[in-house]
Amino acid sequence: MNHVVDFPLLVFATSFIALWLSALIGSVVRRRLRPFNEDQRDAYGVVQTAALSLLGHGCGVRSSVERSPDFGPWATQP
Predict the structure, then answer these.
(1) In angstroms, what CA-CA distances link 54 with 4, 61, 62?
(2) How far is CA 71 from CA 59, 64, 76, 78, in A?
(3) How far, in Å, CA of 65 to CA of 60, rounded?
(4) Could you report the per-residue pLDDT of 16-32, keeping only the tens digit for each?
(5) 45-71, pLDDT tens digit by residue?
(6) What is the pTM of this model?
(7) 71: CB partners within 8 A, 6+ apart
(8) What does DSSP assign to residue 76?
């Protein structure tokens, strides 16, 4: 297991392919079992937009907090 970190591009490529295949399989299964009707598609779009918006805000807040001088081991305590 220690040798895995010696090949980061291989780990990236393997992870990318695995995630892509799992998304593809999930999409195919969802379409065959029960396709969305128009109302469900609209509701799904709202939920998807809200989730992606929250994810973007969380990433932005985290990166701004990490860069602030009051965060981390170098921060001075009052």
Answers:
(1) 33, 10, 12
(2) 16, 10, 9, 13
(3) 9
(4) 999 999 999 988 998 88
(5) 899 999 999 988 888 877 776 666 666
(6) 0.48
(7) 65
(8) P
- Phi-psi domain of 72 (left: phi exceeds 0; alpha: psi -120 through 50; beta: other): left
The answer to whether the CB of 10 falls within 8 A of the CB of 16 is: no
User: What band does 74 get if pLDDT is binned at 50, 70 and 90?
Assistant: low
Within 8 A by CB and 6+ apart from 48, the residues are none
CA–CA gap between residue 20 and residue 41 (Å, rounded): 22
DSSP sequence for 3-54: GGGG-HHHHHHHHHHHHHHHHHHHHHHHHHH----HHHHHHHHHHHHHHHHH
